[in-house]
Write a structure and sequence with these properties.
By secondary structure, the chain is an alpha/beta fold. 27% of the residues lie in helices and 24% in strands.
Length: 423
């Protein structure tokens, strides 16, 4: 446990009647400016009244501390939370120092989870400072973190969206993110030691970032095209306003070779796309399944052996303003070296393709089959690979006009959808 407490002879300060400290007892969380600016005058007043100041050593050294205040140097958080609770109970003015805006992936969440009353005086966050240094707008950006958690959701967000800020951690930083973004059209901004004499801001490529060592702490910006990242509905990763399971007319396709809307609705639901997940669309054809997964926030790799189909996928992705990585090649060989998927749609290929997909062990595999004789072998293959398999046959009939105002039902081809879930 790394907690250092220092108490001077003076008793903890208590606010006088009528001064700003007469609010109900609470913890004031003060952001230390990531851009290197001095704290505003209001912060000086908060600090001057403090009887307890908690923060990392670098933050405690960055601000003027009142004589007689107890200081706690942060290591593990639990002892500091206990000390803050004691201070609040005793009505001792308590201050917590944190980087930038403490409400952005910061300590505010942990303090509230501990039932501590909180007031926040934010400063410029490291994310805002990084965008400022890069000269980029960031109102359309997604902000994610790889600090203390699996890197893949942050990486997949950067694969899916054109403007993403990633709060990094040792072992989950620019080198690792760069390696995972090779193959995607991205420029990276790596902002190291913001607000210090060692500050460095570097524009680079994913491959170059992967080959370098970067100092901590740093922030990574992943920048695609267009570089402002703003979606027309002002939601960087929300469900699309125009919906999904779109009609076939929403996509360019050849000879009606496209997953029909009714089938696509079930397939996309089974794939469970969302921001932070990676979906493969194997045998993509028009790319409609992968594109709708991308519209719902997932990163997508579309694979097809036909160069003409690859061109269709690219055109359809551009039409719907989503970023889909397209691979032209024959599966299963084309799947080698692709990043690990969370879910895979197999819309084309034989048993060897399905076996190669199952061998990568994604959480979900969804297969659409028009030939009934292929259903049992595909089901058995997935079961043998450890998947729980369910299936449904979809046979839709659409209304079609007849002369005189009557209507008939026009049947679409029946399709069997198999869903394999890894327990």
């Amino acid at each position: 446990m790394t907690v250092t407490a220092v108490r001077a002879d003076a008793a903890p300060r208590r606010p006088a009647a009528g001064d700003p400290g007469t609010d109900p007892p609470h913890v004031t969380v003060v952001g230390v400016d990531a851009a290197g600016h001095p704290p505003p005058p209001a912060v000086a007043g908060v600090l001057a009244r403090a009887g307890l100041v908690v923060g990392a050593a670098r933050h405690l050294a960055a601000v003027p501390l009142p004589a007689g205040a107890e200081t706690v140097v942060l290591g593990p958080l639990a002892p500091a939370l206990d000390r803050l609770a004691v201070a609040v109970a005793a009505a001792t003015p308590a201050v917590v120092l944190a980087s930038g805006d403490p409400g952005l992936f910061g300590i505010v969440r942990r303090l509230r989870a501990a039932d501590l009353p909180v007031r926040v005086v934010p400063a410029v966050s490291s994310v805002a400072a990084a965008f400022a240094r890069a000269g980029l707008p960031w109102d359309g950006a997604a902000v994610v973190t790889a600090h203390g958690r699996d890197l893949r959701p942050a990486l997949n967000a950067a694969r899916a969206l054109p403007l993403v800020a990633v709060l990094t951690a040792p072992g989950a930083g620019a080198a690792e993110l760069g390696a995972g973004l090779v193959g995607w059209s991205r420029r990276l901004v790596v902002a190291e030691h913001l607000g210090t004499d060692a500050e460095r801001v570097t524009w680079t490529t994913p491959a170059e970032a992967a080959a370098r060592s970067w100092s901590d702490p740093h922030v990574l910006l992943s920048v695609g095209t267009p570089p402002d990242g703003m979606r027309v509905d002002n939601q960087p990763a929300a469900a699309p306003g125009g919906g999904w399971a779109l009609p076939e007319s929403a996509y360019a396709h050849r000879d009606s070779m496209i997953t029909k809307a009714e089938v696509r609705a079930l397939v996309v639901a089974r794939l469970r796309p969302r921001l932070g997940r990676l979906v493969w669309d194997v045998g993509a054809g028009s790319g409609s399944v992968g594109i709708e997964c991308a519209l719902l926030g997932a990163a997508v790799v579309a694979v097809d052996r036909d160069p003409a189909a690859v061109d269709l996928v690219r055109a359809n992705a551009a039409r719907h303003a989503v970023d889909v990585r397209v691979v032209c090649g024959r599966a299963p060989d084309a799947l080698a070296g692709l990043p690990e998927p969370d879910a895979v749609f197999v819309g084309g290929g034989g048993g060897d393709v399905l076996a190669a997909v199952a061998a990568r062990r994604p959480a979900r595999v969804v297969v659409a089959l028009a030939a009934v004789d292929r259903v049992a072998p595909a089901r058995d293959l997935l079961r043998d690979a450890g998947y729980a398999v369910e299936g449904v046959q979809l046979s839709a009939a659409r209304l079609a006009d007849l002369p005189g105002g009557s209507v008939r039902l026009a049947a679409t081809n029946p399709v069997v959808v198999l869903t394999g879930e890894r327990p």
